[in-house]
Design a protein that fits this description.
By secondary structure, the chain is α/β, with parallel strands linked by helices. Helix 1 crosses helix 2, helix 7 runs parallel beside helix 8 and helix 9 packs across helix 10. The strands form 3 sheets. The protein has a 6-stranded parallel beta sheet, with helices on both faces. Strands 7-6-8-9 form a 4-stranded parallel beta sheet, with helices on both faces.
Amino acid sequence: MAAMRVSIKTLAEKAQVSPSTVSRALRDDPRVRPETRRRVQALAKELGYVPSQVARSLVLRRTQTLGVVVTSVADPYVAQVLAGLEEAAEAAGYTLLLVTSNAQAERELQAIESLRQRQVDGLVLISSRAGELLDPLLPELDVPVVLVNNREHRGAHVHTVYSDTAAGARLATDHLLELGHRRIAYVGGPPGYSAGERRTGFLRALQAAAIPVDHRLLLPGMGEPDDGRRALSWVLDLGATAVVCYNDLTALGMLAAAAEAGVAIPEQLSVVGIDNLPFGTLSVPRLTTVDQEMAELGRQAAQLLLAVLAGQEGQDVVLQSRLIVRESTGPAPAP
């Protein structure tokens, strides 16, 4: 038979004090005399008292949970952000409730409503794909919201944590320009804030270098390895000597296709990714990339949300990108 759960009432009877005194003593409330606090706390430890999270939630009007909506847990980028988010949330005594949208706008809205019904204390949306569908919903939410890598939405209780991803794409492009490349292709990503910002950063770098844009070298994509695989022959046929990819997954797909086709990287084609995923160091050659500090994005998102819940004024957070040069980029081949 399972042991009976020790309650506040039981502790009060054993300690011969009121239940409210026990509650205060367990919280180290200074209104309770030190000797009484020590006696109650020692008794609680002896009897194996475990606080009731349900009761605590009723008292504090908090569930100590944060709702998180992601596109997919299989996305390595999302996994890195989640790791930082969970670390900071757990350190503050919060639990995450995670729902995936499979990158579908309607499912994202349903996920938000589901978490709302579960009375989470706050919401984090990572790489939201709901676009303008979010605009009428956000003002109706009665909890603070933090958007990760999305600055498209505003509201009294809506805050953002993001990498300056446009600057990151520009860093990648400037690196190739400094290596002498002039025919530079770009493989894009799925519709959304990040894809638009990275494309903008790429185009601004070309504009600053007075290089005309060849729109045939602006290829669509969804941020998947197959996008890089499919793009390889196209960019080579158009005379490109370098490629900026929307993310590392796309770039790694291109490196794999190049190895299969016998295309020398970087002697024939330089390739840059964005994100700095851990397995970018395992490719051959190792991938030049732009670090987006993904785990730190998650930590900052949690800390911002917790600060707002504590009654502080929320300040949006921007992280700077950093170029990491490895062996997948090199000087432009001679004409």
